[in-house]
Write a structure and sequence with these properties.
Order of helices and strands: HEEEEEHHH
Number of helices: 4
Distance between the termini: 33 Å
Helix content: 40-55%
Oligomer: single chain
Shape: globular
Largest sheet: 5 strands, mixed
Number of strands: 5
Structural class: alpha/beta
Amino acid sequence: RNRKKFHHDLVSRERKASTAIGRGLALPHVRSMQPKQFCMVFARSRDGVEYEAPDGEPVHLIFGMAAPSYDERMSNEYLQIYKWIARCFKEEEWLPGALLAAQAEHDLIGILSGLD
């Protein structure tokens, strides 16, 4: 809908508390009136970026999520995906290294598709 308003909503959410969870992972997320549907983005930085992570380490992997705040079904889906990503990173010690080492988009998709 409105990119400026969406950017404002996302930055405001991040200012409340960093969405970095440690071990090189950040999960920026926002529910806003701006997205028309649930959406996700994945980014990685082999060098890492400062993200105010609780462990003080740079962030290398970012899974961003946005859901329309007016759609309860999508908001629930958004929370379930958020929890799934956090759980996978907690339980699967190999996951961050595998995502950083992936050479192509299909490698990343294969890694993520193989998770429970």
